[in-house]
Amino acid sequence: MSPNSTAGNAETVLKIGGAAEKAVPDSRLISLESEQDGDVWEAQVVTPDGVEHEMDLSAADATVTSGPTKDEEDADDRAKHRRRLAEVSVDYRGAVKALGSAVPDGTITELDLDSWKDKTVWEADVYDPAGTKHEVKVDATTAEILANEADG
């Protein structure tokens, strides 16, 4: 995915994330990905029982355009979601703030809650103003930048 000047600015990412969480009561955002050159965002949220819900949202006004649809995952996947969420003290908002210091004026195109080196992290693709893609990992408990690898 190439960067789009409005696709992943922090304000848009925060607005889309908030709308996704609002669409499924008591949920927490675990994934956002910019699609269709930033016009649409795919979001995934998880409820306290570990059930994942997926939806598409318009970047223009943060309205849900498709979904939310409940994913039919098995008990192991639901347990993994519950475990990760229990470890998170830095939500997507804190991750976005950390990304702003890691890649100033960057454009976020993807943000996912994942595991890396036995830690729960926020993994992000962020393009700097010159168009270089950075793969950044943010510790989901401390907001510390654990990795910032530039492609190219």
How would you portray this structure in words?
With 152 residues, the protein is of the alpha+beta class. It has a single domain (10-150), classed as Roll (Nuclear Transport Factor 2, Chain: A). It contains 3 helices and 8 strands. It has helices at residues 10-23, 75-87, 92-102, and strands spanning 28-35, 40-46, 52-58, 64-70, 107-116, 119-127, 133-139, 145-150. It has an 8-stranded antiparallel sheet. Helix 1 (10-23) packs antiparallel against helix 3 (92-102). The longest helix has 14 residues, at 10-23. The chain is globular and about 40 Å long. It starts with 9 loop residues before the first helix and ends with a strand.
